[in-house]
Amino acid sequence: IMAYCLMGNHYHLFVKTPLANLDRCMRHINGIYTQRYNKLRKTDGSLFRGRYQSILVEADAYGLQLSRYIHRNPVETKRALVEKLEDYPWSSYPAYLNKVSNPDWLQRDLIFDLLGAKQRYMAYARYVESGTDAETESFYSKTRQAAILGKELFIEQIKEEHDEKKHLIDRYQGNFPSIEKIIVTVAEDFDVDIQEIRQSRRGRGSRNIPRWVALYLCRELSQATLSRISGEFGLTHISGVSQAVYKLQRYRDKNALIDKSVKRLYQCLTP
Question: Are 186 and 197 in contact (CB under 8 A)?
Fold first, then answer.
């Protein structure tokens, strides 16, 4: 994640992924976030407007401008949400100015490298305050936006490579492990019955680490939907997958052997 901004009914993300998994990622973000929000507010239904729109960006050429466009959203509305952009807490802009601690998952280096200034925090603030450039403004103001933001040569290269990339992506996706394979592999590694992984243990505070590991690996490695994973593990709601993953993470933080086992299984299932 290189930049983000959460608005009233939508959000902007500037992300980079080495896999063709953006759709799966966005489905997880929108689905889980909406569930948690509805549970907290005791509401129901969709939270964000429409389906997300993705644009492939030539980051070296337009990354700096794009980050500025995202960060300026709170003051580019009909009525500005804040007087000073740095006071808007629901974006990565305060972190870019070093006003708040930078989270490990926010990658600022590319933007700062493109800026090429010694006093990067002050320089970036001046850059953002100078306003959105005409080219970026024109691109995002169109009713039907293009799928690619980049120079002509970059766009042509992407179009030419599309068929080859699609072939490679399809071939790679075919190597994702199935739910059944993950369950069998985890059962063998922990020396437990498959049924013990598929069925939850009764009682508050019950611990079933192999089941948690299998759920985690299914969510991370398989191409199955959360609904499918929930059904295979006998869960009544897809939120049960995230709950199991959360329990496992807490346990991994305290137990180095379990953490090592999870990493080994991850590598075993992704040769």
Answer: yes
